[in-house]
Design a protein that fits this description.
This protein is an alpha/beta fold and 292 residues long. It contains 11 helices and 12 strands. Helix 2 crosses helix 5.
Length: 292
């Protein structure tokens, strides 16, 4: 059962949440049919440019049940079209053929093209998101910023001036990008799935701290000056943890879950031979180490 939940969570994570509301709701219903919770749907929805509020998401799915009519097959079929590889099943997944990825791969919007026209972060004039996260002094050499006149848009939102976080695949190649506008939420580049991708803050040997987002990774680096790994969402943590363990069998790996995900983090830690660092009690659900 736990494996099925992880499979559904990975599938959901591969679908961009910044979709028209009808499609967003359909895939959310399918996720619940596959055994995920409204909390899972909420976390998947947060990075979307059209995200309104936690209350809106919970209200939209308040009456949705496991047998609500939309089946789990809808989730997995959509995820495959967005490039998800179902490693838990022996049958090969079909090649991506969704109109959304095709649109995202238009000229000038592939990860390599966007990355190439982005500029190095100016360490003397930090990006607004870095300042919002109180992350002055964190390593920024691996990050870039889109020019002020860049025309890229995601979910109707202009990406000009966005902080660009590269997401690297297991082979070390550029797989996707996460863009963070000066005054907006984090948005993943459509058509470039995040499944299995990661970004490392800092370098060197010693423990590696695995977090969902870059803000939490910055906080871990600030506290320890050890490398911190960004998994780009909780649905990706298990896969990234397994990859890190395969690459570095003897390394000390520490999972740093948001509040509410400690039990699942313990399960993943047992599977890959990692430790878990949790926040003190009393913090609200979804608080992360950066908030702390």
């Amino acid at each position: 059962m736990h494996g099925d939940i992880e499979r559904a969570r990975e599938a959901l994570a591969s679908i961009p949440p910044d979709l028209p509301r009808e499609q967003w709701h359909k895939y959310g219903r399918a996720a619940i049919a596959a055994g995920l919770s409204v909390d899972d749907v909420l976390e998947w929805s947060r990075p979307a440019g059209n995200f309104k509020s936690e209350r809106d998401v919970r209200s939209a799915f308040r009456t949705v049940t496991v047998d609500g009519g939309t089946g789990p097959g809808t989730l997995f079929d959509a995820a495959r079209r967005y490039g998800w590889r179902d490693t838990a099943r022996s049958t090969p997944a079909p090649e991506p053929r969704s109109p959304a990825p095709a649109k995202a791969r238009r000229t000038g919007a592939t990860p390599g093209e966007v990355w190439a026209r982005a500029q190095p972060v100016d360490a003397s004039a930090l990006h607004p998101y870095i300042l919002r996260k109180n992350a002055a002094g964190v390593p920024v050499s691996g990050l870039r910023v889109l020019p002020a006149d860049d025309r890229l848009r995601i979910a109707g939102r202009a990406m000009a001036g966005a902080l660009v976080v590269p997401a690297y695949g297991q082979d070390g190649g550029l797989q996707s990008l996460q863009l963070i506008p000066p005054d907006g939420p984090k948005l993943n580049l459509p058509g470039a799935p995040m499944a299995g991708a990661l970004h490392v803050v800092g370098n060197g040997a010693g423990p590696a701290y695995l977090c969902e987002g870059i803000g939490a990774a910055w906080a871990c680096w600030q506290a320890t000056e050890r490398r911190a790994v960004v998994a780009f969402g909780w649905g990706n943590v298990k896969r990234v943890a397994a990859q890190l363990r395969q690459q570095e069998p003897q390394a000390a790996l520490v999972l740093v879950p948001d509040v509410g995900k400690e039990i699942e983090a313990e399960r993943i830690a047992r599977e890959v031979g990692a430790a878990v660092a949790t926040l003190p009690g009393g913090w609200p659900s979804n608080t992360d180490v950066g908030d702390y």
